Amino acid sequence: GMRWPSRRLGVFVVLALTASGVARAGSYTVTLQSQALTTMDAQVKEDTPSATDGDKPELRLKGSPSNKHRNVLVDIPMPAVGNATILQAWLRLTEYAASSSTPIDARVYALSEGFSERDVTWKERLAGQAWSSPGGTHDSYWSGRTLVSSADNGSQVGWQVGPILSAWQLGDLP
């Protein structure tokens, strides 16, 4: 499996923004680093559907048989970008403690329902409130994909999340 230290998230969202209006025409890049106090993260597991793992100090990605799916959930508050248009955005995590050279196909989907880091499980997004789809309700289309393995230990791995942030900015996501 792969692990990422979640309380010291090595998460960077790089935004390429195009400002509206003549005075600020052109593109520029803004780098944002998540704050541990406002970022929520957890892992949920199909084989232990009532387990709460939001308080663990790392996120774990592990290849599993089809009846033991594991999902990593991340909610990073984003600042308003005003009249700018999001052209690209990347989610980057620093990997450590990977133990397999066999790559895991890790994909990023936008969640369509919020969750509570403390209470989230495979079955429930909030205490006593079920996900519409167990494991995290999301669209069937992924935004970013990368293959991760022990070859990436100590390195950043990244996913394209621009379409997710753009949809959020336009109000198409909660």
Keywords, please?
mainly beta, 13 strands, 174 residues
What report would you give on this structure?
The structure is a single chain. The chain is mainly β and about 170 residues long. About 5% of the residues lie in helices and about 35% in strands. Strand 2 (about 10-20) and strand 3 (about 25-35) form a beta hairpin. Mean pLDDT is about 80; it is low at about 1-25.
Any idea what the shape is? globular
Structural class: mainly beta
How would you characterize the largest beta sheet?
5 strands, antiparallel
Rg estimate, integer Å: 17 Å
Distance between the termini: 31 Å
| Number of H/I helices | 1
Number of strands: 13
Uncertain residue segments = 1-24
- The residue fraction in helices comes out at under 10%
What proportion strand?
Answer: 35-45%
* Overall pLDDT: 78
Order of helices and strands: EEEEEEEEEEEEEH
Give the gist of this structure.
The protein is mainly β and 174 residues long. Helices cover 5% and strands 36% of the residues. The longest helix is centred in the C-terminal third of the chain and has 8 residues.
